Amino acid sequence: MNKQKLAILGSTGSIGTQALDIVRQHPDKFEVIALTAHSNWELLAQQVKEFTPSFAAISNEDHLDDLKATVSGVEIISGSENLPSIATLDEADIILNSLVGFAGFESTLEAIRSGKKVALANKESLVVGGALINQELQKTDAKLIPVDSEHSAMLQCLVGESMDDIEKIIITASGGPFREFSKKQMEEVTVEQALNHPNWNMGAKITIDSSTMMNKGLEIIEAHWLFDIPVEKIEPVVHPQSIIHSMVTFIDGSSKAQLGLPDMKVPIIYALSYPERLDLETPRMNWQEAQNLTFEPVDFERFPCVKLAMDSLKESDYAPAVLNAANEVAVDRFLNKEIGYISISKIVEKSLAKIESSDSLNVETLKEIDKETRIYAASIK
Ligand code: MG
């Protein structure tokens, strides 16, 4: 593999910092040319000093002066509206998009339009704009490689296979911290409980999404767009150990699975090195140790978000955008202790029923739907 020039959008987050660990392990394979952060300018400044990128961006302009005063020898960009310019830098070979939320969508779209290899850790890009992104992918030789552990697993299972031979994709879910909670117990879930995930260490938004299993719903929508698979052929299953990251069953009844310890560095390095592999210093499975891998169905009663997400794909092109925006607002309100835990799915459900659009799908329509949904979702209980 030739040395790849890497731009990391969201370098101070969980995925971004792990990607930089990979760069530290492989200084001969990757060169960081751009880093961006939302507001953690102190960590961004440290990263700039260590990795000496040509560009650094801070989307929260309140911290621009602090950043400027701390680093030198780097071109500094500010404002979230300017982030897509980092995603299209001529110098960049790979754009790692680990922005959180709908804010990451335009960067993905612009990176694809400029023919980049995009390592995608921003779920919302495909959830909200999967149809538009796929249209753009057909026009350029850009590549979209998933960073999420489940989609990375699917991709690894599909290498060398014909897409026509897929019978179904089995997407695994840990079930989150409330897998065994009753409906009654779920009504009393606190922010602190929801932020404590048993298997994965992630950012706050995605940790809450894992606990409601909306995360799985969003991942089903992503899988639909990434692999062009109808939602009817995607089957979620709870697998509490998070060792099997997903499976594919083929038309002859054979299934392939991708396994490993839950460690995001594995899908991150695979996305960065794909279709090759690079060595990674990370703990391995010990197959000599007795262990059980168990599976159970998803209970849509207790985890309605999974069903809402799957149904949104059948409803309309823009319904997943409504689902996503309503969920972002609801999770935020829950984290701010404005609403109870089970109101998260209720707000999403009400928003899906309320927000309608007859406009044809484009970036502007998506933005309008996103905005309209956020206003509505912020106003209801
Ligand atoms: Mg995942």
Outline type: globular
| Mean pLDDT metric | 95
* Widest sheet: strand ordering: 4-3-2-1-5-6-7
Give the number of helices.
16
Describe the sheet with the most strands: 7 strands, parallel
Span of the ends, CA to CA: 52 Å
- The count of strands amounts to 11
Radius of gyration: 20 Å
Instruction: Say which molecules are bound, naming each kind only once.
Output: magnesium ion
Strand content: 15-25%
> Any low-confidence stretches, pLDDT <50, length ≥5?
none
Share of helical residues: 40-55%
Structural class: alpha/beta
Order of helices and strands: EHEHEHEHEHEHEHEHHHHEEEHHHHH
Molecular structure report:
The structure is a single chain. The chain is built from 16 helices and eleven strands. It has helices spanning 14-25, 41-51, 64-70, 83-87, 105-113, 123-139, 149-158, 183-187, 191-194, 204-212, 214-227, 265-273, 304-315, 319-335, 343-354, 363-379; strands at residues 4-9, 30-37, 55-58, 75-78, 94-97, 117-120, 143-146, 166-173, 234-238, 244-250, 255-259. The protein has a seven-stranded parallel sheet with strand order 4-3-2-1-5-6-7, with helices on both faces. Helix 1 links the parallel strand 1 and strand 2 (30-37). The longest helix has 17 residues, at 123-139. The N and C termini lie far apart (52 Å). The mean pLDDT is 95. Magnesium ion (MG) is lined by residues 148-150, 219. Magnesium ion (MG) binds next to helix 7.
What is the structure about, briefly put?
The chain is α/β, with parallel strands linked by helices and 381 residues long. The protein has 16 helices and eleven strands.
